[in-house]
Design a protein that fits this description.
single chain, Rossmann fold, 2 domains, 8-stranded mixed beta sheet, 15 strands, disordered C terminus
Length: about 350
């Protein structure tokens, strides 16, 4: 019987690929400890993204692979999720109480951006992360409704300068809707809107968040530029439908984030297909494969492709988005996979940005 070495353990781990990092755990830098005592092996990994619903099964797969190695009688695999702060723009100061800011954006309205942002925040929370969501759509805030927060709710004020976010479904929520009357339109010019956004972000007492999801208004105007210049955004998610007009505007969103040096983590395609509830016939009402083409054009990932579903709309309107209303459903599982991929892309984009160090004899 050959002796077990760290090299043989690492070689075994390299045979399995983390589906979210798209790398094996050794190449991805997740391996932290290898303890070999005769035929007993203990391995500890650290994932840089929230994966509470995934890590148990992943640990079991790695354990089974190790125990199939000659010389290993039993193996223990421990996986921890350690989320570090990252930001795309290095010159922007960090945000108090927030490790990572995720901007959810679209080129045009009506593509399901706010629904995606809400389910992303809830899915990240289900994976064990501390999560907040900021409704940055000053003119048309909707996250209060989606999170089931009663109309007229107001945040508490701490020390006369901090808004305390309202918690719903385990997520810290802040919105302009909490500070204004529901029936009063925001008839503001661009500078006023940008100022309000900055106040909402910087004067909210976010409580030790791993991720802050920002539901952006549609377009590429003042609010988007303010966010890019003043807030340390770790990455952006572009939401679109397969429709050609939506894709045209989504491209502008991708280009905008690239110009301000914010990583585009991927594309979410909503309303990809409609399945008739009576006969089961599938029909691509808004076109087919548009999100995939957009992702391929810019070299990013298609994070999720979601159907045109009445359940998604009804659950959001009822204040319990799909990720919490029906967590075991197929659509909820798509949101969970999307959330893990978003977290993994943030961790990977920061890892890829590390400069290489060369040592010469000169």
């Amino acid at each position: 019987m050959s002796a077990v070495t760290r090299e043989t353990v690492e070689a075994c781990l390299r045979q399995l690929v983390d589906p979210h990092l798209e790398q094996d755990p050794v190449s991805a830098g997740c391996l932290r400890e290898v303890d070999i005592r005769g035929g007993q092996v203990a391995v500890r990994l650290e994932l840089g993204y929230a994966a509470g619903l995934f890590k148990g099964g992943w640990a079991q797969m790695l354990q089974m692979a190790l125990e199939n190695l000659e010389g290993i009688e039993s193996a223990q695999v421990r996986i921890d999720c350690v989320i570090e702060p990252h930001q795309g723009q290095v010159q922007v100061p960090a945000l108090a109480g927030v490790k990572n800011v995720i901007a959810v954006a679209s080129g045009k309205g009506g593509v399901g951006k706010s629904t995606t942002a809400a389910n992303l925040a809830l899915a990240l929370a289900r994976e064990g992360a501390r999560v907040g969501i900021l409704d940055a759509d000053i003119y048309g805030p909707s996250q209060g409704i989606m999170f089931g927060i009663a109309p007229g709710s107001r945040p508490q004020v701490r020390e006369q300068k901090w808004f305390v976010p309202i918690e719903a479904h385990g997520v810290q929520v802040m919105s302009m809707a909490f500070l204004a009357d529901d029936n009063t339109p925001m008839v503001w010019r661009g500078p006023m809107v940008s100022g309000a956004l900055l106040q909402l972000i910087t004067q909210t007492a976010w409580d030790n968040l791993d991720y802050l999801v920002v539901d952006m208004p549609p377009g590429t105007g003042d609010i988007q530029l303010t966010l890019a210049q003043k807030v340390p955004v770790a990455g952006s998610v572009i939401v679109t439908t397969p429709q050609d007009l939506a894709l045209l505007d989504a491209r502008k969103g991708v280009e905008m984030f690239r110009k301000v040096h914010i990583p585009v983590l991927g594309v979410v395609e909503n309303m990809a297909v409609h399945i008739c509830s009576n006969c089961g016939h599938a029909e691509h009402l808004f076109g087919e494969g548009g999100g995939e083409k957009l992702a391929a054009q810019y070299g990013v990932e298609l994070l999720a492709s979601l159907p045109l579903s009445m359940a998604i709309r009804m659950q959001a309107d009822d204040g319990r988005p799909t990720a919490v209303a029906d967590p075991e459903s197929q659509i909820a599982m798509i949101y969970q996979q999307m959330a893990r991929k978003v977290g993994a892309r943030i961790a990977m984009s920061a890892h890829a940005a590390m400069p290489s160090i060369e040592i010469s004899d000169d």
